[in-house]
Amino acid sequence: MAQELSEKDLLKMNVEQLKKEVKNTRVPISKTGKEIKDFVEAEAGNDPLLKGVPEDKNPFKEKGGCVIS
């Protein structure tokens, strides 16, 4: 699609995107970083990637093995 647009059209799209982005409120990383860290630490107990999934609730556990007779 980008190849079909002229350079002028691409520049207009860039300007429109920048106009949208300039309206976003900015928050210092020193504040948001602390908030993210606090959230992650608070939710760590509920994270299955950290705790693991109980064997009886694991939907991907193999149901049975292959039997060769």
Describe this structure as you would to a colleague.
The protein is built from 3 helices and no strands. It is mainly alpha-helical.
Note the topology.
Blueprint lengths: L6 H16 L6 H15 L4 H4 L18
Structural features:
flat; Guanine nucleotide-binding protein subunit gamma; mainly alpha
Q: Give the total of beta strands.
A: 0
> What Rg do the Cα atoms give?
25 Å
Ends apart, CA distance between termini: 58 Å
Low-confidence stretches: none
Q: In DSSP terms, counting alpha (H) and pi (I) runs of 4 or more, how many helices?
A: 3
What's the main sheet like?
Answer: none
* Class from secondary-structure proportions: mainly alpha
pLDDT averaged over residues? 87
| N to C succession of SSEs | HHH
Task: Summarize it.
This protein has helices at residues 7-22, 29-43, 48-51. With 69 residues, it is mostly helical.
